[in-house]
Amino acid sequence: MNFLSHYYFDRDNINCYFILGTVLPDLLKNADKTIVLHPEHLVHADARVNSIIQGWNKHLLVDKYFHSADFFLTHSHTLKTLLAPVITESPVKPFFLGHIAIELILDNLLITTDEINVGEFYDHIDSCEDDVIREFLDFAGMKNPDVFFRFHAEFKRSRYLNTYINIEQITYALKRICMRIWRNPFTPQQESQMTGILLKYRLGLIADFMSIYNEIGLKLHTGETNRHN
User: Within a domain: residue 211?
Assistant: First the structure.
């Protein structure tokens, strides 16, 4: 799942460090795709660092439930099939595009149906102190945290997740993600065709897209209940 979908499950949580943890794996991936950290079982003396770790673990669990759900498997495959003819001359793999497209469409739907407030998400991220984040990154074994902080500062400044309200920006976000791997992933014509496909697909999802959040929410609740029994 993408940033805002992860935030959805903890939108009522007031701990900014936990919220940051729920999106930090993806923030790091955006900062530098080669970064690999595994803080899952670490315990720190600072409760704020531990909150980041707990949020990180929540991220991994939500992704596990999402990527094994029939909803994801069905819609990522359908989008792959729809988008493949458009990108025949592109280096981008259709299965990769279908995977990312459904995640971005879900973020768009959360915003446009008022299920989440993007401003509140950024308020949480802004509230986290860089020194605490740096301590987490050092503790987790990251060798050059400055790579992350340069990206993180721009992420907070630009507030680009607000643009997900426009379907055209979903295509642009897809392009940005693909550009981490392929230099020139799409032509302008391909981008236009992709936007048309994504817009139509989004309209078909509006009625029941919350089913995946309800499904994952139930699994999270069941898992939490079992841990306390």
Answer: yes
Distance CA 154, CA 142 (A): 20
Query: What confidence tens digit (pLDDT) does each residue in 7-52 have?
Result: 999 999 999 999 999 999 999 999 998 999 999 999 999 999 999 9
Confidence label for 132 from pLDDT (cuts 50, 70 and 90): very high
pLDDT tens for each residue of 107-131? 999 999 999 999 999 999 999 999 9
| pLDDT of 225 over the 80 cut | no
Q: Domain count of the chain? A: 1
Q: What is the pTM of this model?
A: 0.93
Q: Look up residue 66 and give its amino acid.
A: F
Q: Is residue 179 one of the residues assigned to a domain? A: yes
Where in the sequence is the domain holding 29, given as residue range(s)?
3-224
